Amino acid sequence: MRLTSALLFSAIASVSAFTAPTPHAQVSRLNTQLHVAAETKPLGKPGTAKLDTDWKDLGFEFRPTKSNLRITYKNGEWGEFEMSEDPYINVHMGATALHYGQACFEGLKAFAHEDGSVHVFRPDENAKRLQSSCERTLMPVLPHDKFIEAINEVVRDNIEYVPPYGSGGALYLRPLLFGSGARIGLQPADEYTFIIMVMPVADYYKGGLSSPVDGILITDFDRAAPRGVGNVKVAGNYAADMLPNMRSKKAGFPIGLYLDAATQSNIEEFSTSNFVGIDSENKKYVTPKSSSVLPSITNKSLMKIAEDEGLTVEARDVLLEELETFDEVMACGTAVVVTPVGSITKLGETDEDTVKYTFGESQEEVGPITRRLYDRVRAIQYGEEEDKNGWLYKIN
Ligand code: PLP
Ligand code: COI
C-alpha cells in the first residue's frame, strides 16, 4: 500500500514540473468560436455587465457570467485552458469525485479599484492550498503558474462581471479540481478536471458587517478528525457539515462553531470560516491553531494587520471556557470577509442548561476592533490603502 502511494506521489511530482504556457496563449473556446489571441484584446471594464439585479443588492449565490475555464488532466499531464459558456459538465458516472469524494475547491475574490483596474487577493496562497488538498487526496497538483494564469484568464474574460468600485461587491472565483475518470475499486482516478467558475457576490451573511450574527456551538457532530482532512479544502468536509449547518439555521443560528473532535474542549472553527476572539483589555487577537482547522488566507492576512495595529496575535489551543473572556468574536474567510458574531449559544437539555455567551456591549453593533480589521483588509482589497505586503495580483 505504502509503495503504491509513493509511486503515485512521484508521478504527481513530475506533473508539477510541467511547463506552463505563456499568459493568454493557447486558449480555445468551447461552444463558441475559437478565442482570438487574447493578448491583442483590450481589457474590458468592470461593472458593465447586465445583471438581473442591482450591483448593490447582490448576495452570495450562483449567477451566470460569460464563461468558465477548464483544464483536463489526461495521460499524466495537464492540458491547455479551454473557455466554456456552458455551466454544465459532462462527467463519467464512475468518476471518483462522485463516489469517493475525490474533489477539492478554493475560494478567492477579484476587486475593482477606483481607476478601473482589477486585482485578485492573494491567489498565490490559494494555489498553494489547492496543491495541499490535491496531495492529501492523491490528485495531481496543478502547477502554480498555471493556476495564476488561469485566474488571470478567467477574470479577464469575465471582467464586466466584476462589481464596480464603490458597490461593495467582488467577483468570487471558485476553482474546483476533481477526479473525473472512472474507477469502481477504491483508488485514485486517472483523469482529472480543473474548473474555475466566477460570479459577482456581496455579503455571505445577511447585513454583512452591520449586523452581528448569532452563533451556535455544534456539540453533537464533529467537523474534522485530528488526523483527517480538516486542514485541506476537500468537498467531503462540507458534506459532513450539511446536516449540522441546516439544523443550526433552522434553530435560528446562521453560523455554527465546531469543537475539536478528540476532546470537545477546544474551539476549532465555524462551518464557513475561521474563529477569532478579541480580548480588548489585553489587546489580544486569539485564534485556534489545530491540525484539523482550514488554514484561512483571510485569517493569515488579518493576523498581519492585527500586529500592525499593535495587537498581540496568539494562534494556539483555545479552550471553550475562554469564550466568556472575549469582548469581540469574528468569523473570517473569503466569502464571509470579517463577520461579527454577537453571541454563541450552547444548547442544553433544558433552558437552565443552556448557556449564551455574548460579546461586546451590544449584540446589535460591531465591535471597534472587528470594524478596524474589516476596514483595513477591505481598504487593501479595494486599493484604498497601500498594498505593503504585495497581496494583490493585477489582472492584465
Ligand atoms: N474555514 C473553512 C471551513 C472555510 O470553508 C473557509 C473558506 O474558505 C475558511 C475557513 C476561510 O478560508 P479563507 O480565508 O482562505 O477563505
Ligand atoms: C470561501 O470562503 O471561499 C468558502 O469556500 C467558504 C464556503 C463555505 C462559501
Total tally of structural domains: 2
The general outline is globular
Summed over residues and divided by their number, the pLDDT gives a mean of: 91
> Major sheet: size, sense and barrel closure?
10 strands, mixed
- Unique bound compounds: pyridoxal-5'-phosphate, 2-OXO-4-methylpentanoic acid
Assign the CATH architecture of the largest domain: 2-Layer Sandwich
**Assembly category:** single chain
CATH fourth-tier homologous superfamily of the largest domain? Aminotransferase class 4, branched-chain amino acid transferase, N-terminal domain
Helical element count? 7
Outline the low-pLDDT stretches. 1-26, 31-38
Number of strands: 19
State the helical fraction: 10-25%
CATH topology of the largest domain: D-amino Acid Aminotransferase, Chain A, domain 1
> What letter string, H or E per element, gives the SSE order?
HEEEEHEEEHHEEEHEEEEHEEEEHE
Please state roughly what percent of the residues sit in beta strands, choosing from under 5%, 5-15%, 15-25%, 25-35%, 35-45% or over 45%. 25-35%
Distance between the termini: 46 Å
Class inferred from helices and paired strands = alpha+beta
**What top-tier CATH class of the largest domain fits best?**
Alpha Beta
Rg calculated over all Cα atoms: 21 Å
